[in-house]
Amino acid sequence: MTHRVGSKVRAPVTIVEQGRARKRLDHLAAEEPLEIRLQAGGQPQTVAVTMRTPGADFELAAGFLHSEGIISERGLIRHISYCVDPEVDAEQRYNIVNVGLHLPELPELATLERHFYTTSACGVCGKASLEALEMRCCSALPPGPIVESALLYGLPDKLRAEQALFEATGGLHAAGLFSASGELLCLREDVGRHNAVDKVVGWALLNRKLPLSGCILLVSGRASYEILQKSTVAGVPIVCSVSAPSNLAVEVAREFGVTLVGFLRGERLTIYAGEERIRVS
Fold first, then answer.
1. FRET label pair with 17: which of 111, 127, 172, 271, CA 20 to 30 Å apart?
2. Are strands 123-124 and 278-279 parallel, antiparallel or unpaired?
3. In 88-121, which positions are buried (b, 16+ CB within 10 angstroms) versus exposed (e)?
Protein backbone atom coordinates (compact mmCIF):
# COMPACT_ATOMS: atom_id res chain seq x y z
CA MET A 1 0.00 0.00 0.00
CA THR A 2 1.31 3.48 -0.86
CA HIS A 3 0.74 6.60 1.21
CA ARG A 4 0.07 9.87 -0.62
CA VAL A 5 2.18 12.87 0.41
CA GLY A 6 1.54 15.64 -2.13
CA SER A 7 3.70 15.04 -5.21
CA LYS A 8 5.31 12.04 -3.52
CA VAL A 9 3.99 8.72 -2.26
CA ARG A 10 5.51 6.44 0.35
CA ALA A 11 5.70 2.72 -0.33
CA PRO A 12 7.20 -0.21 1.58
CA VAL A 13 10.32 -1.61 -0.10
CA THR A 14 12.99 -4.18 0.66
CA ILE A 15 16.60 -3.04 0.37
CA VAL A 16 19.16 -5.75 -0.38
CA GLU A 17 22.76 -4.70 0.26
CA GLN A 18 25.87 -6.81 0.80
CA GLY A 19 23.79 -9.95 1.25
CA ARG A 20 21.46 -8.48 3.86
CA ALA A 21 17.81 -7.44 3.47
CA ARG A 22 16.02 -4.69 5.34
CA LYS A 23 12.59 -3.14 5.00
CA ARG A 24 11.76 0.54 4.96
CA LEU A 25 9.34 3.11 3.52
CA ASP A 26 10.65 4.78 0.38
CA HIS A 27 9.51 7.89 -1.49
CA LEU A 28 8.20 7.48 -5.04
CA ALA A 29 7.26 10.16 -7.56
CA ALA A 30 3.47 10.41 -7.79
CA GLU A 31 1.91 9.80 -11.22
CA GLU A 32 -1.79 10.49 -11.71
CA PRO A 33 -4.06 11.45 -14.62
CA LEU A 34 -4.98 15.09 -15.22
CA GLU A 35 -7.99 15.91 -17.39
CA ILE A 36 -7.92 19.37 -18.98
CA ARG A 37 -11.31 20.86 -19.84
CA LEU A 38 -12.11 24.05 -21.74
CA GLN A 39 -15.17 26.16 -20.95
CA ALA A 40 -16.58 28.94 -23.15
CA GLY A 41 -20.11 30.15 -23.82
CA GLY A 42 -21.48 27.63 -21.34
CA GLN A 43 -19.93 24.76 -23.30
CA PRO A 44 -17.44 22.35 -21.66
CA GLN A 45 -14.98 20.30 -23.72
CA THR A 46 -12.29 17.85 -22.62
CA VAL A 47 -9.17 18.45 -24.71
CA ALA A 48 -6.52 16.33 -22.99
CA VAL A 49 -5.81 13.67 -20.44
CA THR A 50 -2.19 13.46 -19.39
CA MET A 51 -0.30 11.44 -16.81
CA ARG A 52 1.57 13.87 -14.59
CA THR A 53 3.07 14.48 -11.17
CA PRO A 54 0.52 16.51 -9.15
CA GLY A 55 1.66 20.08 -8.58
CA ALA A 56 1.56 23.24 -10.71
CA ASP A 57 -1.52 21.76 -12.42
CA PHE A 58 -2.87 25.16 -13.50
CA GLU A 59 0.48 25.99 -15.11
CA LEU A 60 0.52 22.60 -16.81
CA ALA A 61 -2.94 23.19 -18.28
CA ALA A 62 -2.11 26.72 -19.43
CA GLY A 63 1.22 25.65 -20.91
CA PHE A 64 -0.33 22.72 -22.77
CA LEU A 65 -3.07 24.91 -24.26
CA HIS A 66 -0.52 27.52 -25.33
CA SER A 67 1.79 24.94 -26.88
CA GLU A 68 -1.12 23.53 -28.89
CA GLY A 69 -2.14 26.96 -30.19
CA ILE A 70 -5.45 27.12 -28.31
CA ILE A 71 -4.46 30.01 -26.03
CA SER A 72 -2.21 32.73 -27.42
CA GLU A 73 -2.22 35.18 -24.50
CA ARG A 74 -3.01 35.49 -20.82
CA GLY A 75 -6.00 37.75 -21.46
CA LEU A 76 -7.98 34.89 -23.03
CA ILE A 77 -8.11 33.02 -19.72
CA ARG A 78 -11.08 33.91 -17.53
CA HIS A 79 -10.28 31.44 -14.76
CA ILE A 80 -8.54 28.17 -14.01
CA SER A 81 -9.95 25.94 -11.31
CA TYR A 82 -10.25 22.36 -10.17
CA CYS A 83 -13.49 20.50 -10.82
CA VAL A 84 -16.36 21.46 -8.51
CA ASP A 85 -18.87 18.91 -9.82
CA PRO A 86 -20.50 17.37 -6.70
CA GLU A 87 -21.07 14.14 -8.63
CA VAL A 88 -17.31 13.64 -9.05
CA ASP A 89 -15.43 11.84 -6.30
CA ALA A 90 -13.82 14.38 -3.94
CA GLU A 91 -10.28 13.10 -4.49
CA GLN A 92 -10.76 12.84 -8.25
CA ARG A 93 -11.77 16.53 -8.49
CA TYR A 94 -8.11 17.48 -8.10
CA ASN A 95 -7.35 15.48 -11.24
CA ILE A 96 -9.65 17.65 -13.39
CA VAL A 97 -8.77 21.23 -14.30
CA ASN A 98 -11.29 23.58 -15.89
CA VAL A 99 -9.97 26.47 -18.00
CA GLY A 100 -12.61 29.15 -18.63
CA LEU A 101 -12.06 31.41 -21.64
CA HIS A 102 -13.19 34.95 -22.43
CA LEU A 103 -14.87 33.75 -25.62
CA PRO A 104 -18.53 33.43 -26.65
CA GLU A 105 -17.92 29.84 -27.76
CA LEU A 106 -15.22 27.21 -27.75
CA PRO A 107 -12.31 27.90 -30.12
CA GLU A 108 -11.67 25.76 -33.17
CA LEU A 109 -10.21 22.48 -31.95
CA ALA A 110 -9.71 20.80 -35.31
CA THR A 111 -5.95 21.23 -35.02
CA LEU A 112 -6.04 18.78 -32.12
CA GLU A 113 -7.38 16.18 -34.59
CA ARG A 114 -8.92 14.23 -31.68
CA HIS A 115 -9.09 14.28 -27.91
CA PHE A 116 -5.56 13.92 -26.67
CA TYR A 117 -4.35 11.10 -24.51
CA THR A 118 -0.78 11.71 -23.42
CA THR A 119 1.54 9.61 -21.31
CA SER A 120 4.24 10.82 -18.98
CA ALA A 121 6.81 9.10 -21.20
CA CYS A 122 6.17 10.25 -24.75
CA GLY A 123 3.76 13.15 -24.81
CA VAL A 124 0.99 13.39 -27.36
CA CYS A 125 0.93 10.33 -29.58
CA GLY A 126 0.10 10.27 -33.28
CA LYS A 127 0.51 14.02 -33.73
CA ALA A 128 1.74 15.44 -37.03
CA SER A 129 5.37 16.46 -36.67
CA LEU A 130 7.22 19.32 -38.34
CA GLU A 131 4.29 20.32 -40.57
CA ALA A 132 2.14 21.01 -37.50
CA LEU A 133 4.35 23.94 -36.53
CA GLU A 134 4.55 25.24 -40.08
CA MET A 135 0.76 25.11 -40.48
CA ARG A 136 0.42 27.24 -37.34
CA CYS A 137 2.50 29.95 -38.99
CA CYS A 138 5.38 29.77 -36.54
CA SER A 139 8.23 31.83 -37.94
CA ALA A 140 11.95 31.65 -37.31
CA LEU A 141 12.97 33.12 -33.97
CA PRO A 142 14.85 36.44 -33.84
CA PRO A 143 18.63 36.38 -33.20
CA GLY A 144 18.27 36.36 -29.42
CA PRO A 145 21.09 36.39 -26.87
CA ILE A 146 24.69 35.25 -27.37
CA VAL A 147 25.99 33.30 -24.37
CA GLU A 148 29.35 31.95 -23.28
CA SER A 149 29.77 28.20 -23.37
CA ALA A 150 31.24 28.45 -19.86
CA LEU A 151 27.92 29.86 -18.63
CA LEU A 152 26.08 26.82 -20.01
CA TYR A 153 28.45 24.43 -18.24
CA GLY A 154 27.16 25.60 -14.86
CA LEU A 155 23.43 25.27 -15.58
CA PRO A 156 22.96 21.52 -14.89
CA ASP A 157 24.38 21.90 -11.38
CA LYS A 158 22.06 24.85 -10.72
CA LEU A 159 19.11 22.81 -11.96
CA ARG A 160 19.96 19.76 -9.88
CA ALA A 161 20.52 21.82 -6.74
CA GLU A 162 16.89 23.04 -6.89
CA GLN A 163 15.25 19.69 -7.71
CA ALA A 164 13.67 18.99 -4.35
CA LEU A 165 11.35 16.25 -5.58
CA PHE A 166 14.11 14.50 -7.52
CA GLU A 167 16.27 14.57 -4.41
CA ALA A 168 13.49 12.84 -2.48
CA THR A 169 12.40 10.32 -5.12
CA GLY A 170 15.13 10.01 -7.77
CA GLY A 171 12.37 9.59 -10.34
CA LEU A 172 11.49 12.98 -11.84
CA HIS A 173 12.51 15.07 -14.82
CA ALA A 174 13.00 18.81 -14.63
CA ALA A 175 12.79 21.84 -16.89
CA GLY A 176 14.56 24.99 -15.84
CA LEU A 177 14.20 28.43 -17.38
CA PHE A 178 17.29 30.63 -17.09
CA SER A 179 18.09 34.20 -18.02
CA ALA A 180 20.89 34.89 -20.51
CA SER A 181 23.10 35.63 -17.51
CA GLY A 182 22.45 32.21 -15.94
CA GLU A 183 19.87 33.18 -13.30
CA LEU A 184 17.29 30.48 -12.61
CA LEU A 185 13.87 32.02 -13.26
CA CYS A 186 11.57 29.00 -12.97
CA LEU A 187 11.98 25.27 -12.32
CA ARG A 188 9.29 22.64 -12.54
CA GLU A 189 9.48 18.86 -12.06
CA ASP A 190 7.33 16.05 -13.40
CA VAL A 191 7.46 12.38 -14.34
CA GLY A 192 7.18 13.59 -17.95
CA ARG A 193 9.77 15.84 -19.59
CA HIS A 194 7.13 17.49 -21.76
CA ASN A 195 4.89 18.12 -18.73
CA ALA A 196 7.75 19.86 -16.95
CA VAL A 197 8.19 22.12 -19.99
CA ASP A 198 4.44 22.82 -20.14
CA LYS A 199 4.54 23.85 -16.48
CA VAL A 200 7.37 26.30 -17.18
CA VAL A 201 5.58 27.71 -20.23
CA GLY A 202 2.35 27.93 -18.25
CA TRP A 203 4.16 29.85 -15.51
CA ALA A 204 5.43 32.30 -18.12
CA LEU A 205 1.99 32.65 -19.74
CA LEU A 206 0.13 33.24 -16.48
CA ASN A 207 2.74 35.82 -15.44
CA ARG A 208 2.64 37.57 -18.83
CA LYS A 209 6.29 36.83 -19.62
CA LEU A 210 5.84 35.40 -23.13
CA PRO A 211 7.60 35.30 -25.52
CA LEU A 212 10.70 34.00 -23.74
CA SER A 213 13.03 35.62 -26.27
CA GLY A 214 15.91 36.27 -23.87
CA CYS A 215 15.92 32.92 -22.07
CA ILE A 216 17.60 29.52 -21.97
CA LEU A 217 15.62 26.32 -21.35
CA LEU A 218 17.41 23.33 -19.83
CA VAL A 219 15.75 19.92 -19.64
CA SER A 220 16.89 16.76 -17.92
CA GLY A 221 17.15 13.74 -20.18
CA ARG A 222 16.83 13.95 -23.94
CA ALA A 223 15.42 16.71 -26.14
CA SER A 224 12.45 15.39 -28.13
CA TYR A 225 10.28 16.91 -30.84
CA GLU A 226 7.65 17.65 -28.20
CA ILE A 227 10.07 19.73 -26.15
CA LEU A 228 11.31 21.68 -29.18
CA GLN A 229 7.75 22.27 -30.34
CA LYS A 230 6.69 23.68 -26.99
CA SER A 231 9.80 25.82 -26.49
CA THR A 232 9.64 27.17 -30.06
CA VAL A 233 6.01 28.26 -29.66
CA ALA A 234 7.05 29.97 -26.41
CA GLY A 235 9.86 31.80 -28.24
CA VAL A 236 12.81 30.24 -26.39
CA PRO A 237 15.98 30.82 -28.48
CA ILE A 238 18.33 28.40 -26.68
CA VAL A 239 17.34 24.87 -25.60
CA CYS A 240 19.80 22.62 -23.77
CA SER A 241 19.60 19.04 -22.58
CA VAL A 242 21.94 16.79 -20.65
CA SER A 243 21.36 13.98 -23.13
CA ALA A 244 20.89 13.57 -26.89
CA PRO A 245 18.20 15.16 -29.06
CA SER A 246 16.09 13.22 -31.52
CA ASN A 247 16.53 13.80 -35.24
CA LEU A 248 13.15 15.52 -35.44
CA ALA A 249 14.10 17.84 -32.58
CA VAL A 250 17.17 18.86 -34.57
CA GLU A 251 15.01 19.46 -37.67
CA VAL A 252 12.69 21.73 -35.69
CA ALA A 253 15.63 23.66 -34.25
CA ARG A 254 17.19 24.22 -37.66
CA GLU A 255 13.88 25.09 -39.31
CA PHE A 256 12.88 27.70 -36.72
CA GLY A 257 16.24 29.16 -35.76
CA VAL A 258 16.58 27.60 -32.31
CA THR A 259 19.97 26.93 -30.77
CA LEU A 260 19.95 23.30 -29.66
CA VAL A 261 22.60 21.99 -27.28
CA GLY A 262 22.87 18.37 -26.17
CA PHE A 263 25.12 16.32 -23.90
CA LEU A 264 25.62 19.32 -21.60
CA ARG A 265 27.77 17.63 -18.98
CA GLY A 266 30.76 18.95 -17.10
CA GLU A 267 32.72 21.25 -19.41
CA ARG A 268 31.47 19.64 -22.60
CA LEU A 269 28.52 20.20 -24.91
CA THR A 270 27.41 19.41 -28.45
CA ILE A 271 25.74 22.06 -30.62
CA TYR A 272 23.23 20.63 -33.09
CA ALA A 273 21.78 23.89 -34.42
CA GLY A 274 22.18 27.64 -34.04
CA GLU A 275 25.82 27.73 -33.03
CA GLU A 276 25.92 31.48 -33.70
CA ARG A 277 24.40 32.08 -30.25
CA ILE A 278 27.19 30.22 -28.44
CA ARG A 279 30.52 31.93 -27.85
CA VAL A 280 33.16 29.28 -27.02
CA SER A 281 35.00 30.14 -23.83
1. 172
2. unpaired
3. eeeeeeebbbbbbbeeeebbeeeebeeebebbbe
pLDDT of residue 126: 33
| CATH code of the region 147-279 | 3.40.140.10
**pLDDT (0 to 100) of residue 92:** 72
CATH architecture of 32-126: Roll (3.10)
Contact assessment for residue 261 and residue 253, using Cβ atoms and an 8 Å cutoff: no
Rounded CA-CA distance 36/25 in Å is 33
Q: Is residue 97 a contact partner of residue 54, using CB atoms and an 8 Å limit?
A: no
d(CA 173, CA 31): 12
- For 67, 86, 96, 125, the CA distances from 92, given in Å and listed in that order, are 26, 11, 7, 24
Q: Which residues are catalytic?
A: 122
Q: Collapsing DSSP states into helix, strand and coil, what is residue 270?
A: strand
Using one digit for the tens of pLDDT, what is the confidence trace for 55-74? 999 999 999 999 988 999 99
Helix, strand, coil shares, percent, the chain, to 5: 30, 35, 35
Instruction: Tell me the domain boundaries of the chain.
Output: 32-126, 147-279
Quick check: do 32-126 and 147-279 share a fold? no
How many whole angstroms separate alpha carbon 144 and alpha carbon 140?
Answer: 11
